[in-house]
Amino acid sequence: MTDRKHKSGFVNITGNPNVGKSTLMNQLVGERISIITAKAQTTRHRIMGIVNTEDMQIVYSDTPGVLQPNYKLQQSMLNFSESALGDADILLYVTDTVEKTDKHETFLQKVRQAECPVLLLVNKIDLIDQPALERLVGLWRELLPGAEIIPVSALRKFNIEHVKQRIAELLPDSPPYFAKDVLTDRPARFFVTEIIREKILRYYQREIPYAVEVVVEQFDESPDRILVKTIIVVERETQKGILIGHRGQALKKVGTMARKDMEYFFGKKIFLEMFVKVEKDWRNRDNMLKAFGYRID
Question: Which of 3, 41, 84, 284 is the most exposed, having the fewest neighbouring CB atoms within 10 Å of its CB?
Answer without folding.
Answer: 3
